[in-house]
Write a structure and sequence with these properties.
The chain has 152 residues and is an alpha/beta fold. It has a single domain, classed as SPOUT methyltransferase, trefoil knot domain (Alpha/beta knot, 3-Layer(aba) Sandwich). The protein contains five helices and seven strands, in the order E-H-E-H-E-H-E-E-E-H-E-H. It has a seven-stranded parallel beta sheet. Strand 2, helix 2 and strand 3 form a beta-alpha-beta unit.
Length: 152
């Protein structure tokens, strides 16, 4: 399973997502350009000492990511999906795609996804912070696939 960040805007969220991925043993793909300098101190602060344990692959663009991507389904977390993430059957090789905090993903990216999932929210709430959304969905995906790390 991999977490794919599409052109992230906010370094603190990216650092938090890196910490999540490192802590749970989920690899990460970072699709650039980012809306910040990748070695930003706020990114380091949010990721803390976990970043050294992160399996991270950087891609200069979406097309570069597609050319070199791992096999597996592209599963987009989006407010425009009809399938709740809890009703979706995750697979161990899924690529969980997160859009930009400010704009999600463009239509051409949205259109090539193999699946789209949503976190149901009470109106009038529209969305959650991207790191919170990822934690919820990654947790469910790991639970379903039996891939949570062993407890010491």
């Amino acid at each position: 399973m991999r977490l794919v960040l599409f052109e992230p805007d906010i370094p603190q969220n990216t650092g938090t997502l890196m910490r999540l991925a490192a802590g749970l043993g989920v690899a990460m793909d970072l699709v650039e350009p980012c809306g910040f300098i990748l070695d930003d101190r706020r990114l380091r602060r949010a990721g803390m000492d976990y970043l050294d344990r992160l399996d991270l692959t950087r891609h200069v663009s979406w097309s570069s990511f597609l050319r070199g991507r791992n096999p597996g389904r592209l599963v987009l977390l989006t407010t425009r999906a009809a399938v709740p993430y809890t009703a979706f059957a995750f697979r161990p090789d899924d690529l969980l795609v997160l859009g930009r905090e400010s704009a999600g993903v463009p239509e051409e990216v949205h259109g090539i996804m193999d699946a789209r999932v949503v976190i149901p929210l009470r109106p009038p709430a529209r969305s959650l912070n991207v790191a919170l959304a990822a934690a919820m969905v990654v947790g469910e995906a790991l639970r379903q696939t039996g891939a949570f790390p062993e407890t010491p």
